[in-house]
Amino acid sequence: MSAVSKIDNRPYGVEFSAQLAAFSLDAGGVSVVLDQVDSTSEYLRAHWLAQANAGAAWSVCVAQAQTAGRGRHGHAWHSAAGAGLWFSLAVPVAAPVSAPQEQPPLSLVLAVALIQCLRSFGFDVTLKWPNDLWLRDKKVGGLLIEQLGRADARYWLAGVGLNWQTPTGVLVDKIGAHAAATGLLEGVEEKGCLRERLSMALIAASVACIQSPQTWAEKMSEINPINGLSGRKIQVWDSARLHKEGTAGDILPNGTLTVVTHEGGVHAIGGAFSVRLPA
Question: How far apart are CA 246 and CA 264, in angstroms?
Answer without folding.
Answer: 9
